[in-house]
Design goal:
The chain folds into 2 domains: 19-61, Arc Repressor Mutant, subunit A, CATH 1.10.10.60; 70-208. The radius of gyration is 21 Å and the shape is globular. α2 packs across α3 and α4 (63-80) packs across α7 (114-124). The protein has helices spanning 2-35, 42-49, 53-60, 63-80, 83-86, 93-110, 114-124, 126-135, 143-151, 157-173, 175-181, 186-208. The protein starts with a helix and ends with a helix. Helix content is 80%, strand content 0%. It is mainly alpha-helical and 210 residues long.
């Protein structure tokens, strides 16, 4: 009976630890997005998470470590999420382009500010992104690369990826500027972003001539 009670308590403790860590990371992401890394304090993150400051320090020790963990996890979601799409043997190149645009647009709308963490990782720790891509077979070994080679052997797969990411990401990176310049409400601009799910694929396909 004692062993069972200890085991049950241990499971509860692990679940509580995981819940607290996730709460801190989610709060940190919101504050980092609002204020930027330099202007954010660990006190603000603990207040946002609704926990004791000492507890935050117990889990993550420093703001730098917390930012690194959050940025790395979000970058993994960003880059790792497309691998089922680009390695699908049952879909065409056309369908993969549609799927990539849809995935990233919906992801960035659902997670405001995610693009900032991705850019941070790409700029400051490109080796992490490279390791992640290699672990997932890499772009050049993906099914989409083979399909692109069949359709346009003169175009490197990275050209396609860079062009697509540029067209998808830039409106999200500059959304505050665009909204102010066009005097547009957030809901109206989000509607415009959603429209790009249908607008972008034909432009990309025309650009690469397929």
């Amino acid at each position: 009976m004692v062993k069972k009670a200890v085991k049950k308590t241990s499971k509860k403790a692990i679940a509580a630890d995981h819940s607290t860590e996730e709460k801190i990371k989610e709060a940190a992401q919101r504050v980092f997005i609002r204020k930027g890394f330099a202007a954010t304090t660990t006190r603000e993150i603990s207040d946002e998470a609704g926990i004791n400051y000492a507890l935050l320090h117990y889990y993550f020790r420093s703001k730098e470590k917390l930012f690194d963990i959050v940025a790395q996890e979000r970058a993994a979601v960003f880059f790792g999420g497309i691998y089922p799409i680009i390695n699908d043997e049952t879909t065409s190149l056309d369908e993969k382009i549609d799927g990539i645009v849809k995935y990233y647009t919906e992801l960035l709308i659902a997670e405001p500010g995610l693009e900032l963490f991705v850019l941070s990782e790409m700029q400051n720790r490109p080796e992490r992104i490279s390791e992640l891509m290699k672990a997932n077979r890499g772009l050049t070994k993906a099914v989409i690369a083979r399909q692109l080679k069949d359709a346009r052997p003169d175009i490197h797969p990275m050209q396609l990826l860079m062009s697509m990411l540029g067209m998808i990401l830039f409106p999200f990176i500059g959304k505050e500027l665009f909204q102010q310049t066009m005097d547009m409400e957030k809901t109206a601009f989000t509607k415009m972003l959603k429209e790009r799910v249908k607008l972008l694929p034909p432009l990309i396909k025309t650009m690469i001539g397929i």
